[in-house]
Design a protein that fits this description.
Strand order of the largest sheet: 1-11-10-5-3-2
Low-confidence stretches: 1-31, 254-264
Helix content: 10-25%
Structural class: alpha+beta
Number of helices: 5
Shape: globular
Mean pLDDT: 80
């Protein structure tokens, strides 16, 4: 889809990635259909979201993996398409007709798309700020779980693959209040504030956002066209998302500018 990235109707409104957690999330969402998701932008009448290409998943699995890059490739039954799922601390950049998916609670996913190069990527970070060890790839284990490293890795990878910073547009999701009440620390709100400040400071246009609230979300990003579809998950799914976030915090432990221990 050429030209500007369509504006959202919502614009302007307020590992261990354990294999068991991945499997639970996939199984628990397998009953959904594409009509269960809300498009975040106005679809182009001729746009194709994503599709299955014979041999593509095998090719993607065989490619060298850089630090923090997602590598869980599968067939997304909701859209009948080749897909990659990103877990906390991971990112993925691509320019073909695949779908990049993630499930968010208080975490944030930033979807960046270059409107000229027609290439896009998504990340998934858990905490605002940085790990305290710089933003270079491989600086510390799991550095991508922190906002600064997550955003720098995503932007730098896009630029290396042909995007330019001045033509990047952003859509932002997540930041839910998964644990409410006194002492909850408002992690989702802090994550949201961080990513919006980062985009403004780096001159990246925010096209739309679906953030805050109390519901976790499943986000599906189509990097070839820049389209995003989102589903707010029902209360029966909240426990799975919270378990995923707690598992990720447990693995990392301390070490950053914001302690994971604070968030338990």
């Amino acid at each position: 889809m050429a030209g500007d990235w369509p504006a959202s109707r919502r614009a302007g409104t307020p590992r261990r990635p354990a294999h068991s957690i991945r499997t639970l999330c996939e199984l628990s969402l397998s009953h959904l259909t594409s009509s269960s998701f809300v498009p975040v932008d106005t679809p182009h009448p001729d746009s194709v979201l994503a599709r299955v290409v014979p041999g593509r998943l095998e090719r993607l699995r065989a490619q060298p993996r850089v630090d923090g890059q997602a590598n869980f490739f599968y067939r997304e039954v909701v859209f009948n398409a080749d897909a990659v799922r990103i877990m906390p601390g991971e990112f993925f950049v691509h320019g073909e007709d695949i779908v990049i998916t993630t499930t968010l609670g208080s975490c944030i996913a930033a979807c960046l798309w270059d409107r000229q190069a027609q290439i896009g990527g998504m990340n998934h970070f858990m905490l605002p700020g940085g790990s305290g060890a710089g933003s270079g790839a491989g600086a510390v284990p799991d550095a991508g779980r922190y906002g600064i490293e997550a955003m720098e890795r995503l932007v730098n990878t896009l630029v290396r693959q042909g995007a330019t910073r001045k033509t990047l547009d952003a859509k932002v999701f997540g930041g839910a209040a998964m644990i409410q009440g006194p002492g909850s620390l408002h992690v989702g709100e802090r994550n949201t504030r961080f990513v919006l400040d980062y985009l403004r400071e780096h001159g990246i246009t925010l096209i739309s956002k679906d953030v805050l609230g109390t519901s976790p979300r499943k986000v599906c990003f189509f990097p070839q066209t820049g389209r995003v579809m989102v589903r707010r998950l029902p209360p029966t799914q909240h426990g799975l998302v919270l378990a995923q976030e707690r598992e990720a915090r447990r693995k990392v432990g301390g070490g950053g500018t914001t302690s994971f221990a604070e968030l338990s």
